[in-house]
Amino acid sequence: MATVYDVAAYILASKGAMTAMKLQKLVYYAQAWALVWDEAPLFEEHIEAWANGPVVPDLYEVHKGQFKLQAIPGGDPSKLSDNQRDSIDKMLEFYGDQSSQWLSNLTHTEDPWLDARKGVPMGQRSNQEITHAALMEYYSSL
Fold first, then answer.
1. Which DSSP helix (H) or strand (E) runs through 18?
2. How many angstroms separate the CA atoms of 127 and 45, rounded?
3. Which residues pair with 23 in a beta bridge?
4. Which of 29, 75, 101, 110 is the most exposed place for a label (fewest CB within 10 A)?
5. What angle do CA 135, 140, 142 make, to 5 degrees?
6. Full-prediction pTM beyond 0.90?
7. What total of structural domains would you count in the chain?
8. Which tens digits make up the pLDDT trace of 3-12?
9. What is the spatial order of strands in the sheet that 47-50 belongs to?
10. How far apart are CA 30 and CA 16, in angstroms?
Protein backbone atom coordinates (compact mmCIF):
# COMPACT_ATOMS: atom_id res chain seq x y z
CA MET A 1 0.00 0.00 0.00
CA ALA A 2 1.09 3.53 -0.70
CA THR A 3 1.88 5.86 2.18
CA VAL A 4 0.73 9.36 3.00
CA TYR A 5 4.18 10.51 1.85
CA ASP A 6 3.60 8.99 -1.60
CA VAL A 7 0.20 10.71 -1.88
CA ALA A 8 1.66 14.04 -0.71
CA ALA A 9 4.55 13.75 -3.18
CA TYR A 10 2.08 13.07 -6.01
CA ILE A 11 -0.02 16.10 -5.07
CA LEU A 12 3.07 18.33 -4.98
CA ALA A 13 4.26 16.95 -8.33
CA SER A 14 0.82 17.65 -9.81
CA LYS A 15 0.13 21.10 -8.35
CA GLY A 16 3.57 22.46 -7.48
CA ALA A 17 4.74 24.06 -4.25
CA MET A 18 2.06 24.87 -1.69
CA THR A 19 1.61 25.61 1.97
CA ALA A 20 1.83 22.77 4.46
CA MET A 21 -1.74 23.50 5.53
CA LYS A 22 -3.05 23.16 1.98
CA LEU A 23 -1.16 19.91 1.45
CA GLN A 24 -2.64 18.48 4.65
CA LYS A 25 -6.17 19.31 3.52
CA LEU A 26 -5.62 17.91 0.01
CA VAL A 27 -4.24 14.66 1.45
CA TYR A 28 -7.34 14.48 3.65
CA TYR A 29 -9.69 14.96 0.71
CA ALA A 30 -7.70 12.46 -1.39
CA GLN A 31 -8.21 9.84 1.33
CA ALA A 32 -11.91 10.67 1.72
CA TRP A 33 -12.74 10.47 -1.96
CA ALA A 34 -10.63 7.35 -2.55
CA LEU A 35 -12.67 5.63 0.17
CA VAL A 36 -15.87 6.63 -1.64
CA TRP A 37 -14.83 6.03 -5.24
CA ASP A 38 -12.48 3.08 -4.83
CA GLU A 39 -13.78 1.64 -1.55
CA ALA A 40 -10.20 1.44 -0.35
CA PRO A 41 -7.89 3.80 1.53
CA LEU A 42 -4.96 5.43 -0.23
CA PHE A 43 -2.78 5.18 2.89
CA GLU A 44 -2.88 3.65 6.36
CA GLU A 45 -1.63 6.60 8.40
CA HIS A 46 -4.44 8.04 10.50
CA ILE A 47 -5.99 11.49 10.28
CA GLU A 48 -6.69 13.56 13.38
CA ALA A 49 -9.17 16.40 13.99
CA TRP A 50 -6.79 19.21 14.95
CA ALA A 51 -7.95 22.74 15.75
CA ASN A 52 -7.16 24.00 12.22
CA GLY A 53 -8.75 21.03 10.50
CA PRO A 54 -7.78 17.48 9.57
CA VAL A 55 -4.07 16.63 9.87
CA VAL A 56 -2.06 13.46 9.27
CA PRO A 57 0.39 13.57 12.20
CA ASP A 58 2.98 11.38 10.43
CA LEU A 59 3.06 13.83 7.51
CA TYR A 60 3.13 16.79 9.89
CA GLU A 61 6.30 15.43 11.52
CA VAL A 62 8.04 15.56 8.12
CA HIS A 63 7.13 19.18 7.36
CA LYS A 64 6.87 20.64 10.87
CA GLY A 65 8.18 24.20 10.97
CA GLN A 66 7.93 24.71 7.21
CA PHE A 67 5.41 27.05 5.65
CA LYS A 68 5.75 26.21 1.95
CA LEU A 69 6.56 22.74 0.65
CA GLN A 70 8.07 21.67 -2.66
CA ALA A 71 8.79 18.02 -1.90
CA ILE A 72 8.21 15.35 0.75
CA PRO A 73 11.20 13.26 1.83
CA GLY A 74 10.52 9.58 1.26
CA GLY A 75 7.49 10.23 -0.95
CA ASP A 76 7.38 8.21 -4.17
CA PRO A 77 4.44 8.92 -6.50
CA SER A 78 5.32 5.86 -8.60
CA LYS A 79 4.02 3.67 -5.75
CA LEU A 80 0.48 4.80 -6.55
CA SER A 81 -1.58 2.71 -8.94
CA ASP A 82 -3.13 4.24 -12.04
CA ASN A 83 -6.52 4.06 -10.33
CA GLN A 84 -5.19 5.84 -7.22
CA ARG A 85 -3.61 8.58 -9.35
CA ASP A 86 -6.90 8.96 -11.23
CA SER A 87 -8.82 9.40 -7.94
CA ILE A 88 -6.33 11.99 -6.71
CA ASP A 89 -6.51 13.82 -10.04
CA LYS A 90 -10.32 13.97 -9.83
CA MET A 91 -10.12 15.32 -6.29
CA LEU A 92 -7.56 17.94 -7.39
CA GLU A 93 -9.88 19.13 -10.18
CA PHE A 94 -12.30 20.37 -7.52
CA TYR A 95 -10.12 21.20 -4.50
CA GLY A 96 -6.67 21.72 -6.00
CA ASP A 97 -6.90 25.42 -6.87
CA GLN A 98 -8.57 26.48 -3.62
CA SER A 99 -6.61 28.32 -0.93
CA SER A 100 -5.46 26.63 2.24
CA GLN A 101 -7.84 28.81 4.27
CA TRP A 102 -10.79 27.96 2.03
CA LEU A 103 -10.04 24.26 2.41
CA SER A 104 -9.64 24.56 6.18
CA ASN A 105 -12.91 26.50 6.47
CA LEU A 106 -14.68 23.83 4.42
CA THR A 107 -13.45 21.00 6.65
CA HIS A 108 -14.79 22.93 9.65
CA THR A 109 -18.31 22.69 8.21
CA GLU A 110 -18.23 18.96 7.49
CA ASP A 111 -19.32 16.15 9.80
CA PRO A 112 -16.12 14.04 9.98
CA TRP A 113 -14.12 16.87 11.57
CA LEU A 114 -17.06 18.25 13.57
CA ASP A 115 -18.01 14.83 14.98
CA ALA A 116 -14.42 13.98 15.92
CA ARG A 117 -14.18 17.27 17.82
CA LYS A 118 -17.46 16.95 19.75
CA GLY A 119 -16.87 18.15 23.30
CA VAL A 120 -13.54 19.78 22.43
CA PRO A 121 -13.59 23.58 22.89
CA MET A 122 -12.91 25.68 19.78
CA GLY A 123 -9.19 26.17 19.24
CA GLN A 124 -8.17 23.52 21.77
CA ARG A 125 -5.79 20.75 20.74
CA SER A 126 -7.19 17.31 20.05
CA ASN A 127 -5.77 14.13 18.62
CA GLN A 128 -9.14 12.47 18.06
CA GLU A 129 -9.02 10.31 14.94
CA ILE A 130 -11.23 10.89 11.91
CA THR A 131 -12.04 7.30 10.95
CA HIS A 132 -12.38 5.76 7.51
CA ALA A 133 -15.98 4.91 8.41
CA ALA A 134 -16.75 8.55 9.20
CA LEU A 135 -15.19 9.69 5.92
CA MET A 136 -17.01 7.04 3.88
CA GLU A 137 -20.36 7.73 5.52
CA TYR A 138 -20.22 11.49 5.06
CA TYR A 139 -18.62 11.86 1.63
CA SER A 140 -20.62 9.04 0.03
CA SER A 141 -23.77 10.98 0.95
CA LEU A 142 -22.69 14.05 -1.06
1. strand 18-19
2. 13
3. none
4. 101
5. 110
6. yes
7. 1
8. 999 999 999 9
9. 53-55, 47-50, 129-130
10. 16
pLDDT tens readout for residues 110-140: 999 999 999 999 889 999 999 999 999 999 9
Q: What gap in Å lies between CA 140 and CA 58, rounded to an integer?
A: 26
Provide the residue range defining the domain that includes 61. Answer: 4-140
* Beta strand extents in the chain (DSSP E only): 18-19, 47-50, 53-55, 68-69, 129-130
Q: What are phi and psi of 48, to 5 degrees?
A: -115, 155
Q: How far apart are CA 74 and CA 58, in angstroms?
A: 12
Per-residue pLDDT tens digits for 21-31? 999 999 999 99
Q: What is the mean pLDDT of the chain?
A: 97
Q: Is 49 exposed, middle or buried (0-12, 13-18, 19+ CB in 10 A)?
A: buried
Angle between helices 100-107 and 20-38 (to 10 degrees): 50
